[in-house]
From TrEMBL, chain A:
Keywords: FAD, Flavoprotein, Oxidoreductase. SUPFAM superfamilies: CO dehydrogenase flavoprotein C-terminal domain-like (SSF55447), FAD-binding/transporter-associated domain-like (SSF56176). InterPro entries: CO_DH_flav_C, CO_DH_flav_C_dom_sf, Diverse_Substr_Oxidored, FAD-bd_PCMH, FAD-bd_PCMH-like_sf, FAD-bd_PCMH_sub1, FAD-bd_PCMH_sub2, Mopterin_DH_FAD-bd. One of its GO terms (molecular function) is FAD binding. Its EC number is 1.2.99.2. Pfam families: FAD_binding_5. The lineage of its organism: Bacteria, Pseudomonadati, Pseudomonadota, Alphaproteobacteria, Rhodobacterales. It is an enzyme of class 1 (oxidoreductase). Residues 1-165 form the FAD-binding PCMH-type domain. This is Carbon monoxide dehydrogenase medium chain. It comes from the Bacteria. It comes from Thalassobacter stenotrophicus.
Automatic annotation (TrEMBL), chain B:
SUPFAM superfamilies: CO dehydrogenase molybdoprotein N-domain-like, Molybdenum cofactor-binding domain. It comes from Thalassobacter stenotrophicus. This is Carbon monoxide dehydrogenase large chain. Residues 21-139 form the Aldehyde oxidase/xanthine dehydrogenase a/b hammerhead domain. Keywords: Molybdenum, Oxidoreductase.
Amino acid sequence: MYNFDVVTPNTIAEAAAAMAGDEAQALGGGQTLIPTLKQRLASPNTLVSLSGVSEMQGITKSGDTLRIGGATTHHAVASDGSYPGLSGLAGQIGDPAVRNRGTIGGSLANNDPAACYPAAALASGATIITNTREIAADDYFQGMFETALEEGEIITAVSFPIPQAANYQKFVQPASRFALVGVFVAKYASGVRVAVTGASNDGVFRWTEAEEALSRDFSAAALEGLSVSEDDMISDLHGTARYRAHLIKVVTARAVTAAS
Amino acid sequence: MPRDTGIGAATLRREDVRFLTGTGEYTDDIVLAKQTYAVFARSTVAHGKIKSIDTSAAAQMPGVLAVFTGDDFVDVGGNPAGWLINSRDGEPMKEPKRPVLAHGKVRHVGDAYAAVIAETVEQARDAVEAIEADIEELPAIIDMNAALSSSTYVHDEIETNQCFDWGWIEDNREATDTAIKNAHHVTTLELVNNRLVPNAMEPRASIGSYKASTGEYTLHTTSQNPHLTRLLISAFVLGIPENMLTVIAPDVGGGFGSKIYHYGEEALVLAAAKQVGRPVKWTADRTESFLTDAHGRDHVTKIELALDAEGNFLAFRTDTKANVGAYLSNFSTATPTFLHGTLMGGNYTVPLVYVNVKAVFTNTAPVDAYRGAGRPEATYSIERVIDKAARELGMDPIELRRKNFVKPDQYPYASAAGLEYDAGNYDALMDKMEEVADISGFEARRKASEAKGLMRGLGVNAYIEACGIAPSNLVGVLGSRVGLYDAATVRVNATGNISVMVGAHSHGQGHETAFPQVVSDMLGIDASTIDIVHGDTSKIPFGMGTYGSRSLAVCGSAVVRATEKIIVKAKKIAAHMLEVTDQDISLNDGVFSVEGTNKSVTFGEVALKAYIPHDYPLESIEPGLEETAFYDPANFTYPSGAYACEVEVDPETGKVRVDRMCAVDDFGNVINPMIVTGQVHGGLAQGIGQALVEQTFYDEYGQLLSASYMDYTMPRADDLPMFQVDHSQGTPCVHNPLGVKGCGEAGAIGSPPTVVNAVVDALQSGGHNITHIDMPVTPVRVWEAMQNAK
Ligand SMILES: Cc1cc2nc3c(=O)[nH]c(=O)nc-3n(C[C@H](O)[C@H](O)[C@H](O)COP(=O)(O)OP(=O)(O)OC[C@H]3O[C@@H](n4cnc5c(N)ncnc54)[C@H](O)[C@@H]3O)c2cc1C
């Protein structure tokens, strides 16, 4: 690590002020950022720790909406249960040590192309709430590690409309156990949304053909005849592009079966 | 009483108390007064010409005490290969120098070309970033075939990338070719034995220190064999007189082979300690471990098996390219040759074996022995090709093996690959395996899997390996530059407790528990009063270290011999005390007694007498009770086994799940069955890891893409089934006093072909015409194989 300062704000306002400093960076659970610092791949002047900001903690349900504070841990979401599909996803992230530290805000800010939460946020049509604005999930994810966040912007909460049925299936990359292909399926009165993580060079994306088919008939059989193009799929030592394209359909079918 | 702590007792491992409570002491835990820190500058390119290294800015950085480059070590020696291999044409192998720090060229990603010594690790790291190295990138030699035809050389001075072209047994070559040409049936298989990163939990670490007043050096280091490390540093690399260098390997957190060898970092910290006048510590980070620990395996092989119409084996012919990486690590030339070629007859009465091995230099990390060392490569080739032959001939794979087994009445059996097997019973192992694995229940389990939409396969295997390496006179003829004996001193203290100084090093094997059981059994005293001392060249007589499952067979035998000497002397003392002759004395349960009388003295009384010899036969025996023995075995030992594995394969994703894994091993006599079971479990986990998940991936530029746990998969508990392990069918080794064979590597040797055989069987049962998939059998490989077979 290179040297840096740490500040521990208590409010969003204090955190936002600290983030305005030169080369300041938000610190969530540190599960991605600390290893990066240890390898000297980043050199912030100041880390703004968000774990003491009480406004960014906790989960509240009002009507059909679940609001999760940006500094809420994966473990807290996994234990909540108001949105079972989402809790199921959070419980599959990493191991207990990671889940007790890692946060939803950190995961969504990082937008790792193989991370789990982006699939839930996109499939649920969630709203990413920051210290300055609200961003619809459809506008938020902009490719691998790219998001709509501005410099210094903090995810203070995420708001999820709770669906009628949902499920996340993760076919793991065997080493990291992130998603080689992860699919989140969410069924709303307005229709079904399907988001895919792990597979594409463009990061998390919606499989709209499947959404249409599943909105007509929410069953694995509805996917027969559909296929995903391998064109933009990731190809690496864990999976060829055509394998990932194939897995998307298999995993989606499994998620639909598990949700229904 | 001794029965509970002697040979055969499943006592808990006493060393586990400190390991599990965090009170073990590893090299990095040791803090020497005024200790400083070394950090290495390592190449980011696989192959490059070092045009200049400017260390002036680094030397001015805060806390920096010294900066070293390859220039500082041109006048000292290189790290040698321990085994000379001659090519088929009689030419000795090519042995380019392996310097302490790269000089002239860097030859793999991670090759160290400079080192900084500073007050803190962070300061040393900062200074390493300030070193300006001008390294001109050269084409990387990664693929072995390309290496052999390339005019770019990893080592320019040898003008080839081939280290040797070895034939075994060369006199069999023509006869083998003829047998294959004329055979009723020949089965051919091309396969890759995948390169593995050892991944010991504890990374390598070393502390060099130097005492100017006496000229003595001390090296604390993560080593499986401190004496060999001392010998290499003294005789080959730095020229420090052996009596001026102490090497201490304290608790070591796993080695799997990778800590057998001497590495440049050890020499660097010693030389640096002398220059800066303070101890110098280096601890690898995980990335350095991935890039610079000696890797394992990496063979590309074509094997042919010739059979007659009845399925009798006529010949095995093997053609292997073995990657040795960028430099010759200490055992790298022995592993693909004598530890591999000599096992190519397997458990079978095959009359002809011929093996050709070409060792190839590439711009990758050095490759050397890794748990099993050559024998897994041999077993994998043999047992995969037999399985394929059974399928081609429509024979049952168990029956085909049984038909060709060496039979119990054929021992000693001279194998066609040049070894003399001393004892075994392969049919008994197979019988036991069929029972423990419930082979007869397989079809029902297959139906149950199919009902779930999964393909189920059964794989079997029979292996033999060679452990306890081995008679010095034999290995000397074969090219070894060291002797392969071991040593032990048994010191009975005045108060009757015992210290046993052993040359074997324990880094997970449980010697601290098992060795006392042997002494306990022989002396009839409780093992809790017996203690093992190991890992410190100043405390132990000598030792060749721990690898090749040799500790008990070789060093344990030295312990037996030294204890026998103790008994002889103790009986003389007892005879004097009881006023009889020593022939009249017998030792039972720690008591020396005269048969037919009630006269007796205890072991403790004899010990005390030896150290307080007031009334003592000083004219015929010396005071004290301490004996040393060196033991050089008469032969290798030959563990063998029969394994079975059942897998389920998901036809939609290609994912393989190991459902059942059964290992029936013949380890000869067993000293501590619980430790043996644990060793088999560890070996199976590593073997299944190799078969299913572990993938070392260099890209065409020589970048190691699998250089972290984000991409290199280690087997985890949930990848593994509950193991069925049996070692009830032991046939004692006939030439060592304990009748033991060695159990440390068997699991890693026997399991990979068993798993792959099972996967192929599963795919065949699902109607896929697939006869082979290379390891690791990852989901994508299985799925791609299914697509390609359509
Ligand atoms: C062993 C291991 C296994 C893992 N497995 C999985 C897995 O299976 N699936 C998965 O999805 N993830 C996995 N992760 C990643 C884990 O979920 C991380 O917790 C997550 O990616 C980052 O969250 P964090 O709170 O730790 O963020 P940090 O590491 O603290 O920060 C990550 C990035 O986000 C920024 N940031 C943090 N919080 C905010 C915020 N509130 N607003 C704006 N920016 C912010 C930081 O500045 C930084 O750039 C794993 C991690 C580890 C170490």
